[in-house]
Amino acid sequence: MVLQRDIQIPVWGTATPGMSVKAQLGNEIVTTKAGKDGKWMLRFPKFKAGGPYVLKITENGNLSTAITLEDVLIGDVWLASGQSNMEWEVQQAGNARKEIENANFPQIRFLMVDHDIETKPQPDILSGKWKICDTTNVKKLSAVAYFFARKVHKDQHVPVGIIQSTWGGTPIEAWTSREQLLTSPITSKRVSAEKMPVPADFVTDSLNGVRFWQMVYQPQNNMDKVIPASDYSDTSWHDMEVPGLMKDIGITYADGIIWMRKKVILPESFAGKELTLHAGRPEMNYSIYFNSAEICRNVWNAAPVHTFKVPGSLVKSGENTVAIRVAMLWGGGGLNPPADEIYITDGISRVSLAGRWKYKEGVEPILPVMHNYQSYPSLLFNGMINPLVHYGIKGVIWYQGEANSYEAYNYRTLFPMMIADWRARWQQGNFPFLYVQLANFMKVKPNPSESEWAELREAQMLTLSQENTGMACAIDIGEEGNIHPANKQEVGRRLALVANKLVYKQPVVASGPLFREFKKVGNSIRIHFTNTGAGLATRDGAPLTGFTIAGKDGHFQEAKAVIEGDEVVVSAGDGVDPVAVRYAWADNPVCNLINSENLPAVPFRTDKWKGITQK
User: Fold this and answer.
1) Inter-residue contact 9 to 1 (CB < 8 Å)
2) 200, 249, 348, 359 - which has most CB atoms within 10 Å?
3) DSSP of 423-462, one letter per residue?
4) Residues near 129 by Cβ (< 8 Å), separated by ≥ 6?
């Protein structure tokens, strides 16, 4: 394991009530006595980075009771928490094979906290074991946490420990204590009124979850043998345009299976040839069938490309049938644009699969209802955070917010509230809390557009007003059709840059340009930035993009913007008296402002402004 350097190191456990407990770490020996409840805690004096040491603990000096822990290093311990983008594994990241092959860092160790939903705060984690970072163990480690730890280890030359406590798809309320949630009018009513589940509910929900995913992965009632058949009649089905998403054709937010079919005419030159089917950018779980035969079964986001071989034995000239079984989950499902990425080819010519398709819902049984208790207020705090609060840490790295985007404005209260909650419970002062701002995602839309994600990014930026916090901006490394962008290397690197400056006090430029203040000059607005490094620039050398400007009517329009020193001058059109500017204000904005370190400018708007400084 790794224990935290430069603090009094806490060690705790249970023993026979009233018995003395003796602990030795290196040459340091500390004793204490177990209370009436058998609980004890002691603290070693401060250690510098180093090791390995042996930690030995005995009860009443009796060697038969000894617990001996070997290969203990002293260094920096970081708690990595949040939802799926923090949970995303090294083996799922970009360039995974090479990263795994090179992951030989014996002084990086990690502890993965198992998922655990609890109605009351727990004294211990469900299970878990410290592991050394090597090519075998690194695969399932958080990619963001690993790339962060790797850079910190190389830059600071100290052992690094990662305690990973993550659960995909979870809101911030699940990670906050009940006591803290009751202090806010945003959450107190829900927490007070919501019926607290009992352990039996977790069992039922778990069983429903097993059945749910079984039905997602396995077609029911032999529909995979019926619907893909060429002679199946779909005349009563509805029409839809592809590319297109289910939510775009009026299917409400619900989980279920939807079938799609298309008759495609292939030229005689395709007959008997092995073809390649390009599905473009599908959402969620899906399977594709060609003339009754299944040619792929893909898990959501599991494939880096969605390209599949069609055996020549299935291919005939004239009419062929393509069917897709789509699992509509969490409101998603369908095929994203662009249309020219959805086609079938023999390598010489191609036939488009875009255009009109048939679809039908309800041909398979309804999926079981899952309550997803992991999203309930405080239940993850109880099982996955509270057991850790005694452990000495350097700080926290956090990647979360997607699950709170539907109430983005409230995040400016909920996020600082959780940070304060954790700091109070750790009793290590205002330890560093570093986090990732939401990356660009979803369809590229004109700037600015109404965007819950932009509003949540703003809430994350405003959290920089909290002491000892730092933010890594990821507005330029997301992916349009993938909520889990593959470039976790850069996310981890940017978090480590923030740590190098904020925590390790290195003279580095740790983040991109951050809006500081603005001033109206004639029919333009001058925007002043901090964190410019040696100067502002554009990523591609092209004119600035992403800036919009509005007059008193509040209507934003694309604006001309030019760099002047550490400022950007944003100009309005003729007849516009400008009052506000926005930058990169969209789910997936087109923007290119950077500093000399090639770090992206943080999205902002002046019309809801509060001055913030990235330390």
Assistant:
1) no
2) 359
3) HHHHTS-S--EEEEPPPPBS---PSS---HHHHHHHHHHH
4) 111
The distance of Cα 404 from the centroid of its chain, to the nearest Å, equals: 12
- Residues sharing a CB contact under 8 Å with residue 99, sequence separation 6 or more, in sequence order: 90, 93, 138, 489
Whole-angstrom distance, CA of residue 563 vs CA of residue 529: 11
Q: Order of strands, edge to edge, in the sheet holding 286-290?
A: 238-242, 355-361, 256-266, 318-328, 286-290, 293-298
Give the helix/strand (H/E) hosting 560: strand 560-564
Handedness of CA 556, 562, 568, 573 (dihedral sign): negative
Q: How confident is the model at residue 304 (pLDDT cuts 50, 70, 90)?
A: low
The pTM of this model reads 0.87
Question: Is the pLDDT score of 612 beyond 50?
Answer: no
What residue type is assigned to position 449 of the chain? S
Residue-level pLDDT at 348? 95
Per-residue exposure over 17-41, b if at least 16 CB sit within 10 Å of its own CB, e if not: eebebbbbbeeeebebebeeeeebe
Residue 109's contacts (CB-CB under 8 Å, 6 or more residues apart) are 1, 2, 73, 130, 131, 132, 133, 159, 160, 161, 162
Mean residue pLDDT across the chain: 93
Do 606 and 456 contact (CB within 8 A), yes or no?
Answer: no
Give Dmax (Cα) for the chain.
Answer: 88
Residue 551 structure tokens = 């007059």
Instruction: Report which of 604, 613, 453 is spatially closest to residue 527, judged by C-alpha positions.
Output: 604
User: 300 falls in which pLDDT band (50, 70, 90)?
Assistant: low
State the residue for tokens 């400008």.
Answer: 578
Q: Residue 611: which pLDDT band, with cuts at 50, 70 and 90?
A: very low
Would you state the structure tokens that stand for residue 394, as one six-digit string?
């350097």
Which one, of 505, 480, 493, 483, lies nearest residue 590 by Cα?
480
Q: How far is CA 397 from the centre of its chain?
A: 12
- Residues 146, 138: contact at Cβ < 8 Å? yes
Between CA 455 and CA 108 the distance in angstroms is 36
Over pLDDT 70: what percentage of the chain?
97
Measure the CA–CA gap between 83 and 171, rounded to whole angstroms: 8
Could you tell me the pLDDT band of residue 252, with boundaries at 50, 70 and 90? low
pLDDT digits (tens, 9 = 90+) for 76-103: 999 999 999 999 999 999 999 999 999 9
Radius of gyration of the chain (CA): 27
pLDDT of residue 448: 66
Strand partners, 361: 258
254: helix, strand or coil: coil
Looking at residues 365-384, what average pLDDT do you find? 94
Burial class (CB in 10 A: 0-12, 13-18, 19+), 255: buried
* Helix (H), strand (E) counts: the chain: 11, 36
3-state secondary structure 482-544: ECCCCCHHHHHHHHHHHHHHHCCCCCCCCCCCEEEEEEEECCEEEEEEECCCCCEEECCCCCC
Please indicate whether residue 367 or residue 608 has the higher confidence score (pLDDT): 367
Average pLDDT over residues 195-218: 90
Q: How far apart are the first and last CA of the chain?
A: 31
